[in-house]
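FORM 7B: Structural annotation worksheet

SECTION A. Query
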Amino acid sequence: MTEITFYTFADNPLDVARRVAAKAHGQGKQVMIYAPDPAVADSIDRLLWTTPALGFVPHCRDSDTLANETPVLIGANADALRAADVMINLHTEQPAAFARFERLVEIIGQDETGREQGRARYRFYQARGYALKTHDLRQAG
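SECTION B. Predicted structure
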């Protein structure tokens, strides 16, 4: 069963997604950054290219010709990954294909709308019997 982890009260959800993707990549995992919204996909793509200044996480869009050989994909086509290791959800709803993955990461910001959407996703997974872990990022400092 998919392991689901919520990171709550993120100052910058995209930076948390970048760090989670970098860590998973460093562990040899295939990562799908689920971002069906083009503006969000552009933002995380740009962040992965520029941060950190001396590091690089190999990534591309799920529609790119190199998607089959790239360990981190951005988009909404979970089938583009060779292995369903980690999915990072940057969408307001749960991804349809999340159950195929070993691990799903949900990142919740500090705005009330995003927190309510996160609560709805939490209840969705909980009602289906998934074990949920939560990391309150306010306490991580």
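SECTION C. Observations
The longest helix spans residues 112-127. The mean pLDDT is 94.

SECTION D. Sign-off
Analyst initials: ____
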